[in-house]
Design brief:
Blueprint: E1 5-12, E2 15-23, E3 33-39, H1 48-62, E4 67-73, H2 77-85, E5 89-90, E6 96-104, E7 107-121
């Protein structure tokens, strides 16, 4: 998982029910950035987005990153509440308008949205040295 990007997938049996993309370098804040957290509508409100976010945080901490960031739509109050509950706070960046065509879940999608960037400090305790 130490590459430039990681794609996390949540499964229920053999069915993928959610995903999140992690960019390890080049994010807005110079720290790993969680992107495109998505849960299939029929599986929402079951903690899947929280589990995907926690998995990204654990991996970032395991790679000795002290912080992680993410962005969400300014209009997505559900996401805002989830991320605040998980300890994310405003990153101090101006809201960012994004426009254009992006490839999302294998299809081109027209995007015109405004993102709020959040950041969270991670628990990166020093590891025990092998003796």
């Amino acid at each position: 998982m130490g590459g430039h990007q990681t794609y996390l997938v949540a499964w229920e049996g053999t069915e993928p029910v959610g995903h999140a993309h992690v960019v390890w370098a080049g994010g807005k804040l110079g720290v790993p950035e969680i992107q495109d957290v998505f849960v299939v509508p029929a599986h929402r409100r079951r903690g899947i987005a929280t589990a995907l976010t926690a998995a990204a945080e654990r991996e970032a901490a395991a790679q000795d990153h002290a912080r992680i960031s993410l962005g969400h739509s300014i209009a997505n109050d559900v996401a805002r509440r989830v991320y605040e509950r998980l300890g994310y706070r405003n990153a101090g960046l101006d809201p960012e308008r994004v426009q254009g065509t992006v490839l999302m879940r294998g299809r081109p999608v027209e995007v015109d949205d405004t993102l709020i960037h959040l950041v969270k400090d991670l628990d990166c305790r020093p590891r025990e040295l092998d003796t």
